[in-house]
Amino acid sequence: MTAQVERYLYLIQQVGSRYYFVAGIAFLFFYILFRSRIQHRKIQIKFPSNRDYWREIFYSSFTILLFALIPYFLVFNPAVRPYTQLYSQISERGWLYYFALFPVLFFIHDAYFYWIHRLMHHPVLFRWFHLVHHRSTNPSPWAAYAFHPLEAFLEVGIFALFLFLFPIHRTHLLLFFLLSIIYNVYGHLGWELYPKGFNKTWVGRWINTGVAHNQHHKYFTGNYGLYFLFWDRWMGTLRSEYDTSFDEVTSR
Question: What pTM was computed for the model?
């Protein structure tokens, strides 16, 4: 086996293990072990079908292959690697820079996601890019990576942006994308984990929630953010019934 193949398989293992572990744990606890006890708290009371779960896993598995392929060409390609801003020793930039970069990554990714998400909802593009993901009108944790390959290509573009935008350590990428898949799975979980009234606190009104993203899957419009509601509030795309729905779900 060549070194190139081994590196690609390593990246598949990295991306795939995050997805299958985080989504699998969420599915085990919410959809199997405690299903009957907490069903009344489910955002949409009805459960997806087994066919839905397998469709989501199928498309997510292809997404994993693409999510590993792009980093492979950028990080392990000797013709490209020198042009990235990857650095090897944390001491090169210091711990202050190291930790300060994490919130920057989340804000940039949220803005990137919001605008490509809205773009993919354009009638000309929706069918080709985003319809596969929206087949999950009642999503499960397995839907987190259930993308058409064209959408997956756009989604992984944030990786390239990070590599070329500013100095970044490999552990930035490892930790960021681990936290990202955790929040992504929460957004597709089907349950709201934030407490009642959170949406009306000074922090909570800017944080994306399971209810907000579930509404997007159910109605196809509004609530385009990933981690935050900044852009939805600024651009007037937050669904008008969001607060009412959040209050209803968290009051059960």
Answer: 0.96
